[in-house]
Amino acid sequence: MVDTSRGDAPTSPAEEPRGCLFALSQPPLMIFLTVVGGLLLMAALHDLFLL
């Protein structure tokens, strides 16, 4: 069998840079954004229909 290793340790997936889509996939952040969006929606509807 031919040895194809180059002597360098392969980079693990944990060391890869993570972007914005990874951050948005986190449940606590999505819950926070949903609550804030809901409050903004309620305030907008209050302004539109009750004032």
Helix/strand layout:
Blueprint (H helix, E strand, L loop, with lengths): L19 H5 L2 H24 L1
Task: Walk me through the structure.
The model has no long low-confidence stretch (mean pLDDT 81). By secondary structure, this protein is mainly α. Helices cover 57% and strands 0% of the residues.
Largest sheet: none
Low-confidence sequence ranges: none
Helix content: 55-70%
CA radius of gyration: 23 Å
Determine the strand fraction and express it as a percent band: under 5%
Helix tally equals 2
* Strand count: 0
Average pLDDT confidence is 81
Q: Roughly how many Å apart are the termini?
A: 79 Å
Q: How would the global form be characterised?
A: rod-shaped
- The SS-based structural class is mainly alpha
Question: Helix and strand succession?
Answer: HH
Please provide a brief summary of the model.
This protein is an all-alpha fold and 51 residues long. It contains two helices and no strands.
